[in-house]
Design a protein that fits this description.
The chain is of the alpha+beta class and 98 residues long. The chain has 4 helices and 5 strands; from the N terminus they run αβααββαββ. The protein has 2 domains: 7-34; 38-93, Multidrug-efflux Transporter Regulator, Chain: A, Domain 2.
Length: 98
């Protein structure tokens, strides 16, 4: 495992810049009538879809569920979860139109 040493001030400045970017993104989302807080993590998605982690991973692999991976964690937009549910989700699996 590689380690990097960083000064506390540099790390604090980095966190401030990230926070500033998040604020700017929130403003942009609001201007477009969207809510930037509409993301859920993998565990929440599993609960909403009533699927196991393996099943939801298979949906990702088959490109049936868009996702974002950030820092080793996986996140989904709620609108994508809703779209999946409305596109033919059944408790036994996903209906595919070929």
């Amino acid at each position: 495992m590689e380690m990097t040493i960083i000064e506390g001030k540099v790390l604090t400045d980095l966190f401030k810049r990230i926070s500033s970017l998040q604020t700017k993104l929130d403003i942009l989302y609001e201007k477009n009538g969207q809510n930037s807080k509409e993301w859920i993590n993998n565990e929440e998605a599993c609960m909403r879809l009533n699927l196991s982690k393996i099943s939801i991973m298979n949906l990702r692999k088959r490109n049936l569920l868009p996702f974002t991976k950030l820092g080793g964690k996986i996140f989904y937009k709620l609108v994508d979860i809703e779209a999946l549910l409305s596109s033919g989700y059944k408790s036994g699996g996903i209906k595919q139109n070929n």
